[in-house]
Write a structure and sequence with these properties.
Blueprint: E1 4-8, H1 14-21, E2 35-37, E3 40-42, H2 46-49, H3 54-61, E4 66-72, E5 92-97, H4 104-117, E6 122-124, H5 133-140
Parallel strand pairs: 1-3, 1-4, 4-5, 5-6
Antiparallel strand pairs: 2-3
The structure holds guanosine-5'-triphosphate and magnesium ion.
């Protein structure tokens, strides 16, 4: 599996996706700091949402091959600034999360936020039901 950095707002599903990708039990634990689990660097959503933490995301991105931007299908507002992917040296992909909790138009809205952020390659997943995980795992292999 590629070395990846997970970036997204608080509660968008980064840690749950990490657990799913690793085939681990899904257990909720608030991420308090940047940490590495195998090939995955997980980050707290605050690092995206609070401007003075953003530099930490950029530093962490130097360690990975791919940045994964996550947007929850349950959140209607954009959490990434336009062109956010240019902030990172490695390429980025976009992942819409929590597709089990939203309809097609909400999923499309989250996807449009990821495109505006600069992600040209999008995936739609539910870490809970497993929908879309095989396709994403194949991309990360
Ligand atoms: N239904 C559903 N719930 C999900 C999914 N992914 C995550 N959740 C739930 O959303 C909540 C937040 O998930 P986390 O994975 O902790 O979110 P996070 O992005 O790591 O959040 P921070 O660590 O605070 O930045 C938890 O209660 C998860 O169970 C999903 O695909 N479907
Ligand atoms: Mg987390």
């Amino acid at each position: 599996m590629k070395r990846i950095l997970l970036v997204g707002s608080v509660g968008c599903g980064k840690t749950t996706l990490l657990q799913r990708l690793h085939g681990a039990d899904l257990t909720y634990a608030k991420t308090e700091t940047i940490y590495t689990d195998g090939q995955v660097v997980d980050t707290p959503g605050e690092y995206l949402e609070l401007p003075w933490f953003k530099h930490a995301l950029r530093l962490a991105s130097f360690e990975v091959e791919l940045v994964v931007l996550l947007a929850s299908a349950t959140v209607s507002e954009a959490k990434f600034p336009p062109g956010f992917t240019t902030f990172f040296m490695p390429p980025s992909i976009g992942v819409v999360t929590k597709t089990d909790l939203a309809g097609p138009s909400a999923i499309a809205t989250a996807g449009s936020h990821l495109r505006l952020a600069g992600a040209t390659e999008l995936y739609e997943v539910s870490a809970v039901t497993g929908d879309g995980i095989d396709t994403l795992s194949a991309r990360l292999a």
